């Protein structure tokens, strides 16, 4: 089970979009709650070109074979990773035929 919330914030000229978010997840296999903040953005240089990016923390249960009693370690913590991305976006203009 998880809860997620985000908020879209724009700059004065609408070229910058910032989306902070948070996810709270209950990982039943390890009986633990995780807190996962995220931050995404988009900056439009022109109507056609934009830069996008984001960073966030993500958690997941260990795999079954890592925690199975008698074979693995049943007391493992959730697996955690920091994901980040940066990219460019191009949207061609629409031309009437």
Describe this protein with a few key phrases.
97 residues, mainly beta, elongated
Report on this structure.
Helices cover 4% and strands 58% of the residues. It contains one helix and six strands; from the N terminus they run βββββαβ. Strands 1, 2, 3, 4, 5 and 6 form a six-stranded antiparallel sheet that branches. A hairpin with a 5-residue loop joins strand 2 (9-10) and strand 3 (16-27). The longest helix is centred in the C-terminal third of the chain and has 4 residues, at 64-67. The chain is elongated, with a radius of gyration of 20 Å. The chain starts with a strand and ends in a 7-residue tail after the last strand. The mean pLDDT is 92.
Helix amount, in percent?
under 10%
Structural class, by secondary structure, is mainly beta
The description of the largest β-sheet is:
6 strands, antiparallel
Q: Give the H and E element order.
A: EEEEEHE
β-strand amount? over 45%
Rounded to an integer in angstroms, the radius of gyration calculated over CA atoms is: 20 Å
Low-confidence stretches: none
What is the mean predicted local confidence, pLDDT? 92
Tell me the total number of β-strands.
6
Q: How many H/I helical runs?
A: 1
| Inertia-based shape | elongated
Span between termini: 50 Å
